[in-house]
Amino acid sequence: MAERMKLEYRYLSEERAREIDALGLKDPYGTKIYINYAKSVTNEEETIIFQKIYHAHFYNTDYDCDQYLLFYKGHRYTLRMEDRWRKEVKDGETFFYFKFVIFSAIQNYVDCPAEEVLAVLKNVLYEWGRRGKNTVFGTDIPMEIIYLGEKIYG
Questions:
Q1: What is this structure's pTM?
Q2: Judging by DSSP bridges, how do beta strands 49-54 and 39-42 pair with one another?
Q3: Which residues make Cβ contacts (< 8 Å) with residue 131, sequence separation at least 6?
Q4: Which of 34, 46, 92, 111 has the fewest beta carbons under 10 Å from its own?
Q5: Would you call 57 exposed, middle or buried from its count of C-beta atoms within 10 A (0-12, 13-18, 19+)?
Q6: Per-residue pLDDT tens digits for 19-46
């Protein structure tokens, strides 16, 4: 990954969490999503925020997958995604690999084309996998990103 943004996995500030919570976001079943108490991948200014907002129940595998929230440049993106990881042991050493499959189309805006959002997502997903899942995964994780069926990274 060429250039990494300065991102961290942490709780949002109370003020920013209240702002997002006030949007009244709902999961696919109409239940209000509470932002305050969940960790996010974010930057220092909290202008980039990435957070899992819905855990799939796997009742209907064609529709039911995890949902994530991404705030970037004042735009909100709700993404249906699966994050998969696997572990491999080679010569007594353990390796972890991540694969992120994004099913939602990313909307283009004049000030923020989808390609730019995908570039930000690469950095966000790297940090999500590195720190958000479990710190045991280390600092440099092979990662693959599939966007609408097309491999865009890895």
A1: 0.84
A2: antiparallel
A3: 8, 9, 41
A4: 92
A5: exposed
A6: 888 888 887 778 888 776 678 999 999 9
